[in-house]
């Protein structure tokens, strides 16, 4: 049941630009009857003051600003019922005090830097009796719902195989050869912000919702762009600094699903957005027909953010009502709604993040050991 009063929220890592500012905060603030943003925390006192001024105007009342150690905002008594949000690449350092303060939390995917860290969050959440929601907002997308509906209808018969080709172009400046300075942490594999963990992790979560789980995976990879040229955030020009790339920019995963269907998935990054280069193509083939999902948006492979086109047996399927908000704003808003209503299974939790990380860990094991990895 929804709470009788709006959930009072403290938001860690809320600046005036970026993903949190563009999608997470606006969607949260739009649900005024369900959530009330009352505090925020950033890395510095100056940035916290700027952010607090902006969002105080947005919500119509003063927001308390914190900076530095997240135990300060975690223990703020004005969060009642006890709720907290954590969103930052340094998740363990930032989130642990929130859970220990027994406050429910949101955490952006990939949650922990790896499976072990994500499992630690899940165990700590159970120990402290708190609820969680994870930024795998693609689960709320219209495209996931529509693809499940089409397959369940039997229109294409039993699914026998599926394939994905996805490209993250260099103009995105997330991974080499060009990386803007605010994203330089993505170059170091141990930071947990790799091609595998973020875009592939997102789509594999959506993939599992639609196609079911993998029974086995066999993965290969290579690295073409071994050096990253760092780009100035404001001028978009090279800073003169370069850094070594530490993880693959091409990853191929094949395997058999528990349904018996065969899957072949290929991701690549670093290519220019030249005319005709496909950004995202997903085909699902059944005995009686096929589904094609495609997008030429720069970040088209991110179905959690953008609504691709769907074709069934060559005919386009309209599934986003004209004039309605789609993409990331729709997906995040629906996830917030499901959380406040307590609709278990309707929003992703830290336990769902653990499950997704287990698949990624299996893929990494296959890459490291050069063999097929099977799942129970």
TrEMBL record:
Signal peptide: none annotated. It comes from the Eukaryota. Residues 68-89 are annotated as: Disordered. Residues 7-135 form the Gfo/Idh/MocA-like oxidoreductase N-terminal domain. InterPro entries: Gal80p-like_C, Gfo/Idh/MocA-like_OxRdtase_N, Gfo/Idh/MocA_oxidoreduct, NAD(P)-bd_dom_sf. One of its GO terms (molecular function) is nucleotide binding. Residues 144-295 form the Gal80p-like C-terminal domain. This is Gfo/Idh/MocA-like oxidoreductase N-terminal domain-containing protein.
């Amino acid at each position: 049941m929804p709470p009788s009063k709006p959930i009072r929220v403290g938001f860690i890592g809320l600046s005036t630009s970026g993903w949190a500012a563009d999608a997470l905060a606006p969607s949260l603030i739009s649900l005024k009857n369900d959530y009330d943003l009352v505090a925020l925390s950033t890395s510095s006192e100056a940035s916290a003051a700027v952010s607090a001024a902006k969002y105080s105007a947005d919500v119509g009342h003063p927001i308390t600003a914190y900076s530095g150690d997240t135990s300060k905002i975690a223990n703020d008594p004005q969060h009642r019922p006890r709720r907290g949000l954590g969103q930052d690449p340094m998740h363990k350092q930032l989130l642990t005090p929130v859970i220990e303060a027994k406050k429910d939390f949101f955490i952006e995917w990939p949650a922990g830097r790896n499976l072990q860290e994500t499992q630690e969050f899940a165990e700590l959440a159970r120990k402290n009796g708190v609820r969680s929601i994870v930024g795998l907002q693609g689960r709320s997308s219209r495209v996931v719902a529509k693809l499940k509906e089409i397959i369940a209808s039997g229109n294409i018969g039993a699914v026998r195989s599926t394939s994905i080709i996805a490209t993250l172009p260099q103009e995105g400046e997330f991974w080499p050869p060009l990386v803007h300075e605010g994203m330089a942490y993505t170059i170091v594999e141990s930071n947990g912000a790799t091609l595998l963990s973020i875009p592939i992790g997102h789509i594999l979560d959506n993939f599992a919702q639609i196609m079911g789980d993998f029974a086995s995976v066999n993965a290969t990879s290579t690295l073409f762009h071994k050096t990253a040229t760092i780009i100035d955030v404001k001028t978009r020009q090279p800073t003169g600094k370069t850094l070594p790339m530490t993880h693959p920019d091409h990853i191929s995963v094949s395997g058999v699903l528990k349904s018996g269907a065969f899957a072949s998935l290929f991701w690549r990054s670093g290519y220019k957005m030249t005319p005709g280069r496909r950004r995202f193509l997903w085909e699902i083939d059944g005995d009686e027909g096929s589904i094609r999902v495609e997008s030429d948006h720069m970040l088209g492979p991110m179905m959690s953010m953008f609504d691709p086109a769907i074709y069934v047996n060559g005919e386009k399927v309209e599934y986003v009502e004209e004039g309605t908000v789609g993409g990331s704003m729709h997906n995040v808003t629906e996830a917030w709604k499901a959380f406040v209503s307590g609709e278990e299974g309707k929003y992703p939790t830290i336990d769902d993040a653990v499950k997704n990380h287990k698949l990624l860990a299996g893929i990494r094991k296959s890459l490291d050991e050069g063999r097929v990895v099977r799942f129970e």
